[in-house]
Design goal:
The chain is mostly helical and about 80 residues long.
Length: about 80
Amino acid sequence: MRLLALLCLTAAWAVAAPAPTKTEPTNAQEAAAKKAAQDKVVDERYAAWVAKLSPAEQEWERILHQRDKLAGKSNAWDFVKDDP
């Protein structure tokens, strides 16, 4: 009797339990699509940030790493304003 009750509870829980959220791609095509979507967001955010800079700074930033800048990380290649 206890086994039957346990089986019924287990079956009821399995039906009521939400499906696990999918966080990792299951194949190369999904992984590529996920990466492309992430890259698009980075590109859009970077373009918006660069648009706010002076023309000299925009030219300089074209050669820097987009992800580092968007993450707020400074590096040795940061633009330095010429102030004679």
